[in-house]
Design brief:
homodimer, about 35% helix
């Protein structure tokens, strides 16, 4: 068999330390967090440097052997899962911080470096690496790049593509493209960095990157706000962005249904406000001047209360107090305890249409399943909401009908079926709800141009 | 001739109002600001909407007729110039603002809309469109996108690619890709928007875009600083980014040679400081709270003076005073008056290496031409400097020897030969000083995938 020959060639060339066969890697996890099915790879390849990645890919292309690149395996759409006819290429050994350049404000890392390691190294060097998500301890920078990860601080700092200056990657042929550039401006031909970011391992294997570091914020102001309607929520966003000089670092909106449900189900949470409101916003601003920053934030909040844009608000008086607000927003980490079979969606719209789109979704879902639990919340500053649906008695992996309702609304509002999680296998049948046929054909043409034998992460995205 | 047939087919399909033949468009300018040679097009095509662009490109592909897309024709690298065997496709009639969405903070425009029109419309709607460059009155949004334009405010707001949410474009085949999305987060497949941005008209014709608007700054603080050495300049940058909460909106560094030369040659300029310094920095920060912002800026500047990072400084006391500082930085607009035959370079490096790279450049140029005028200045926060060289007696268009010296240093420091101007025809022979052969091959493969007959802006970039 061609695949056997390919695996044999990999093992001979790279050695048994790098190329492990089934039975040799024990019960090591090889599937992501999506809960979707995954198979055992024909071999697990664990290169130690870019040259070994290049050698492996050149051999895989020669033997038409499919390759699934794996980072921290924390993805939610099955993008790193296996069909069974591929080798898994793990970047876990390439986990070194190569350099921190404090003058240029950059950190050069290998792709397998966990996000949290990068965050901590940046902090130790007096800087801030703003990308942050729940999986920080496990997810890797390479995976963050391959999926263009988002998270809570996008409103101020952008997504993963905005955190990278230079990117080195290996094409299916084994050719190494890009490089460890530290330039912020670079208009010398097509920007491969931006094409590869978010391509979910289908165009190249990202091996190293130069990350951009930011000044460390030294002042944080946080408030929990209750608002009368969605128009007030978008007004608060616009006013906060215009009125808080250092900008808004988080603007997390929660519909009342979310707030009430998580508070009813999780004993550790306390409602920050005495009375109920239709919408809640966790507003945060970071700056560098604690006194002026705190004063300006409090003044701004006072104005919003006076004008009735915010009905009631609690200002965090300490870091612990702010953390208690964040605990309500972070409750999705506890869904397994009370809605283990829920369906979860990560969609985005124009900011102006988020309210209407969410309402339509909820109405259609409610019409079909009157007893459903429907939770809506998200990063409004990015137009990104998460919709969680739990229909009593409906098992996990049988969510097709819910999928259709949510993604139809997404298409009707010209939204995105994937704001930050990617397409993987989970959403590929819905890709055309967000992309035209001409778009998909262009994507296929680009894929064919860079990976003519289709060995990189086949069956993902399209 | 095939070309004649193609032009005839264009004229028949789109009409004489859209497709004009030589002689019918008078002495209308068809070359850019590079000063490089350009020819008369076989026809000038001026579509009124995306459908006409699509019809024109489909016909050009069928007849293998090359197309050069033209916007405001303000480019500096010959990217929109003609060889003589192409039709020129001007977007000048597609110059409408389609919509301003004040809640989402977006403006949807046709690609031919001049930058200044966008800036003014944003301002009238209570917003700010941050991209700004000298050619603002003539350059178009489509050209800004095709070249990923930069300018003075990149340090705070990013380049043109950071100002666009949705992008509609027409491929060579006539297929329309992308769309007028307003989402900030959108991870549904490859990001064609970022691939097309900066591709200089070689992959598609950009027809419409959704631009991201920002809150309007209402407080500006500006200072002119004299510094003892380059280490102090990078320290000031790091400290300003960390210490000024709303961030730095401009950090323009000028080497003494630049300062002294422009002041000696332009009567209208006045030196802001009494004594000479090796380096000058124009530091600007914008915010929203005039009182707190001004106080914090002045305190920061005081600390920098106390610590000796800044040797002397002048704080702008009025807008006119700030404009007098900017006039020194904007002196390149007057080069024609005293160094009309100069060679100009737009290069970038890591911030840490800008000083060393500039010094090496200057030393090598000085060794070869001891009497040369060498001016160095630029956007240090982006690692981007401009180097201007005037060798007495050396005519314009005979700068090959200077090119080689500057671009060799660029390669040695892993810098970019084009920070913000693009490659066009002017820099294409130097592309490999900044990109590897594998990079160029990938670019060719992508070009071949999206424009298989090579009709879009042939001969540009590579």
């Amino acid at each position: 068999m061609a695949a056997d020959e390919g695996v044999r060639a990999l093992r001979e060339t790279l050695g048994a330390q790098v190329v492990m066969l089934p039975g040799e890697f024990g019960d090591r996890r090889v599937e992501d967090w999506s809960g979707l099915p995954s198979a055992v790879p024909l071999a697990l390849v664990r290169p130690r440097d870019t040259a070994e990645v290049a050698a492996a890919l050149a051999l895989c292309t020669r033997h038409a052997l499919p390759v699934v690149t794996q980072g921290g395996l924390t993805g939610l759409v099955g993008g790193a899962n296996l069909r069974g006819d591929e080798v898994a290429l793990s970047l876990d050994r390439m986990n070194r911080i190569v350099e921190i350049d404090a003058v240029s404000g950059t950190m050069t890392v290998e792709a397998g470096t966990p996000l949290q390691v990068v965050q901590e190294a940046a902090s130790a060097a007096g800087f801030y690496f703003p990308l942050d998500l729940g999986a920080r301890g496990s997810c890797s920078i390479g995976g963050n790049l391959a999926t263009n990860a988002g998270g809570n601080r996008v409103i101020k700092y952008g997504m993963m593509r905005d955190q990278v200056l230079g990117l080195e990657a290996v094409l299916a042929s084994g050719a190494v493209v890009g490089g460890l550039n530290k330039m912020i401006k670079n208009n010398s031909g097509y920007d491969l960095r931006h094409l590869l970011t978010g391509s979910e391992g289908t165009l190249a294997v990202i091996t190293r990157a130069v990350l951009r570091l930011r000044p460390k914020p030294t002042a944080t102001a946080t408030a929990w706000c209750g608002l009368p309607d969605f128009a007030a929520v978008t007004t608060l966003l616009t006013r906060a962005q215009a009125g808080l000089a250092p900008g808004v670092s988080a603007f997390e909106v929660m519909w009342a249904g979310y707030h009430d449900t998580v508070l009813a189900n999780l004993d550790t949470l306390r409602a920050p406000l005495a009375s109920p409101h239709p919408f809640y916003v966790l507003l945060e601003s970071v700056g560098t001047d604690p006194v002026r920053h705190g004063e300006a934030f409090e003044e701004f909040l006072g104005t919003m209360l006076e004008e009735g844009i915010v009905s009631d608000a609690a200002l965090a008086s300490s870091e612990a107090h702010a953390q208690a607000f964040w605990a309500i927003r972070d409750a999705p980490g506890e869904y397994q305890r009370f809605i283990p079979d829920h369906a979860a969606y990560d969609v985005s719209f124009s900011i102006a249409q988020v309210g209407e789109a969410a309402a339509l979704c909820e109405a259609r879902l409610r019409e079909r399943w009157p007893g459903a639990t429907i939770l809506v919340y998200g990063h409004l500053g990015d137009g990104n909401i998460h919709i969680v649906v739990d229909v009593p008695g409906m098992p996990k992996h049988d969510h097709d009908d819910i999928d259709r309702i949510v993604y139809d609304v997404t298409r009707e509002f010209h939204g995105s079926i994937s704001a930050e999680h990617g397409i993987g296998v989970k959403k590929k049948h819905f890709l055309r709800q967000s992309r035209t046929e001409a778009d998909v054909e262009s994507m296929r043409a680009i894929k064919q141009a860079l990976d003519p034998h289709g060995i990189l992460n086949p069956g993902k995205i399209f």
